[in-house]
């Protein structure tokens, strides 16, 4: 018999879906529809609204884990932190576990998520077997790759709530060993692409298996690929939840060992390297800052406070410093264009470090709203921070130049953060006509906000 475990019963799930549907019906027609949840991993400000949000309070759990079939039934607002806690005791994890603990499974599927398994496991939506979606018409339908709602299934990824919200997802799970052994390999910019191509083709590097791969470019002349392999060996492991900082270790040691749990969340404690903006990497501040509060959702709330009150920006101006533009983006660049894009980025933007994460579609199918090519390896380049701008520069000038360069290099940009495209360009890049055709079926009264309105106009 399959092993099962869950924190939410099917009865509780059905009751929660009923409350969700009732809350949807209470939102007046013409008013914005949003989730009423405490955390978010979106990085674009949104227009404030007074209407109540959708009640998703009962949709945060794991319904069941089938260890024999290697599947799980999960509620849409379940965080990856809670999902991993339910699957890891079986030696199983989602095929792709995004880096931040409070990303939800539904959010990673309707948006995009990647991690160091994405060079072989693709994107989170590719491991979804079926999902229940609350549509704009107020119905809950079960969408699968084939059948009545196949068009909704295929168009849901990268729709960001414009087609509805996932209430339940059945996903595939992957095996993971108790430990992950790491190698940090330093490479030149021109060597990154060929090394990634070799790993994708062979699943090995220098004769050792590679199960996970990502990397960091610290400067135009210093870049690393971090290669991970599953290991059952019980050796001394590192701990980056205390005084040590993970990303700095990449430069300091050629190899490392982490528990599977700590490997999956290695980036969360310091929000990659962005915790430095709050002083959390200062050794004295770090000693006083409780470890339970050194996590990505806490930093995100601090960013939200700054977005609302602009305290740091006002202090910066009073000191006579140049205004700064927020540049928080993840972009997918074809691997053969990676070195060229990084050189352009160094010359025109100059932010460092940047994250590098290879990915490719897991299968031969493509997905309408984020047209990555099947059989092509891309590298996610992630950069998160601010840059100084000249007096009188237009709002979003740096981000617009990045958007243009990404297109020039044959890439695509994720929509979780600021976007500045004009309507025509946006509709072409994100295949909005295909979205509109499906939206007309499942949201005939246009109750859900459109993708351009969400991503660009911040509604």
Automatic annotation (TrEMBL):
Membrane protein topology class: Single-pass membrane protein
Gene3D superfamilies: 3.30.465.10
Subcellular location: Membrane
Signal sequence annotation: none
GO CC terms, sorted: membrane
EC number annotated for this UniProt entry: 1.3.1.72
Enzyme class name: oxidoreductase
Keywords: FAD, Flavoprotein, Membrane, Oxidoreductase, Transmembrane, Transmembrane helix
Main location: membrane
Domain FAD-binding PCMH-type: residue ranges: 1-176
Gene Ontology MF terms: Delta24-sterol reductase activity; FAD binding
Record-given protein name: Delta(24)-sterol reductase
């Amino acid at each position: 018999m399959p092993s099962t475990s869950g924190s939410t019963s099917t009865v509780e799930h059905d009751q929660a879906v009923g409350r969700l549907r009732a809350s949807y019906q209470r939102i007046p027609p013409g008013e914005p529809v949003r989730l009423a949840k405490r955390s978010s991993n979106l990085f674009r400000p949104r227009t404030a609204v007074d209407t109540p949000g959708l009640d998703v309070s009962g949709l945060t759990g794991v319904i069941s884990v089938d260890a024999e079939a290697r599947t799980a039934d999960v509620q849409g607002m379940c965080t990856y932190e809670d999902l991993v806690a339910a699957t890891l005791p079986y030696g199983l994890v989602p095929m792709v576990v995004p880096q931040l603990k409070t990303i939800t499974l539904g959010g990673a599927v309707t948006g995009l998520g990647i991690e160091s398994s994405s060079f072989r496991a693709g994107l989170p939506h590719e491991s979804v077997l079926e999902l229940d979606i609350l549509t704009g018409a107020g119905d809950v339908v079960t969408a699968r790759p084939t059948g009545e709602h196949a068009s909704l299934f295929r168009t849901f990824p990268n729709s960001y709530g414009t087609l509805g919200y996932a209430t339940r997802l059945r996903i595939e799970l992957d095996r993971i060993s108790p430990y992950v052994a790491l190698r940090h390999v330093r490479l030149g910019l021109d060597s990154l692409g060929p090394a990634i191509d070799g790993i994708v083709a062979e699943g090995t590097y220098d004769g050792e298996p590679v199960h996970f791969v990502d990397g960091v470019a610290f400067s135009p002349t210093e870049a690393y690929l971090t290669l991970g392999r599953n290991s059952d060996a019980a050796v001394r492991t590192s701990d980056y939840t205390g005084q040590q900082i993970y990303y700095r270790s990449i430069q300091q040691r050629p190899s490392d060992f982490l528990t599977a749990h700590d490997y999956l969340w290695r980036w969360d404690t310091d929000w990659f390297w962005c915790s430095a903006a709050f002083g959390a990497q200062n050794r004295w501040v770090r000693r006083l800052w409780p470890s339970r509060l050194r996590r990505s959702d806490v930093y995100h709330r601090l960013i939200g406070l700054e977005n609302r009150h602009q305290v740091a920006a006002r202090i910066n101006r009073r000191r006579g410093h140049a205004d700064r533009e927020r540049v928080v983006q993840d972009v997918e660049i074809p691997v053969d264009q990676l070195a060229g894009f990084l050189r352009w980025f160094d010359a025109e933007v100059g932010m460092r470090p940047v994250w590098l994460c290879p990915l490719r579609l897991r299968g031969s199918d493509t997905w309408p709203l984020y047209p990555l090519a099947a059989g092509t390896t891309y590298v996610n380049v992630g950069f998160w921070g601010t840059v100084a701008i000249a007096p009188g520069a237009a709002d979003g000038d740096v981000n617009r130049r990045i958007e243009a360069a990404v297109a020039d290099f044959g890439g695509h940009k994720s929509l979780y953060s600021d976007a500045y495209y004009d309507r025509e360009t946006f509709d072409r890049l994100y295949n909005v006509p295909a979205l509109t055709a499906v939206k007309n079926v499942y949201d005939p009264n246009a109750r859900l906000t459109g993708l351009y309105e969400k991503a660009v106009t911040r509604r």
